[in-house]
Write a structure and sequence with these properties.
binds zinc ion; elongated; mainly alpha; 0% strand
Length: 203
């Protein structure tokens, strides 16, 4: 059986996991967009080249079309080399995997909190060990996360964790965001604030 303190820890672990999930999602979507641009260019540049060559053939613009083609081909080649050298697909795969893992963990912590009276203490301790391992993987994958990005992800996690998205530190709602002094969510503390200072999520 788990006491109230354990349930609070589970709720907190859930928000931390959801925060990490949103951080991974941010990295993932940025890289996916960049990858999509390169793929689009890989098709678009040759199509544009044939169109230009066909329309400019035998005209005074033929030379300009050839220069434009060489320029675009060089850009495309550089982007393809960058994409391969920096292993974008591996990067996307890793963040995608950790996003799913954090989502699974958040769901498990929530179920355990809901079933607290019948949850054995051993299961709770195992989950905390998993949280440490997962946090370690997150830190290695995400590297240094700017505070602004971390707080934005935390607010998204609050919205996902409860209908009103209230920050447990400053009592403000993540749905009503005004940049403020809360060190955890970055919002302006509500008048019912207990204390606005606290560790940053995942620190
Ligand atoms: Zn807050």
């Amino acid at each position: 059986m788990l006491d109230e303190n354990c349930v609070d820890q589970l709720r907190s672990l859930r928000i931390d996991a959801l925060t990490a999930k949103h951080l991974h999602h941010g990295r993932l979507s940025r890289k996916r967009k960049a990858s999509l641009v390169v793929d689009f260019l890989a098709i678009g540049v040759p199509v544009l080249y044939f169109a230009l060559r066909f329309t400019a053939k035998g005209t005074q613009h033929q030379e300009v079309a050839e220069i434009a083609w060489e320029f675009l081909a060089a850009i495309l080649l550089a982007l393809a080399i960058i994409k391969m050298s920096f292993r974008w697909e591996d990067y996307i795969g890793k963040h995608s995997e950790l996003m799913a893992e954090n989502n699974w963990f958040a769901s498990k912590a929530n179920k355990m909190a809901d079933a607290a009276p019948s949850t054995p203490r051993k299961e709770f301790d195992q989950l905390r060990e998993q949280a440490v391992e997962l946090e370690d993987k997150d830190l290695r994958s995400l590297g240094t996360v700017p505070d602004q990005e971390k707080r934005r992800a935390y607010r998204e996690a609050l919205k996902e964790s409860s209908p009103n998205g209230v920050c447990p530190i400053c009592q403000s709602s993540a749905y009503s965001y005004t940049p403020g002094s809360c060190q955890v969510c970055g919002n302006t503390p509500s008048s019912g604030e207990k204390h606005a200072k606290g560790g940053l999520p995942n620190e």
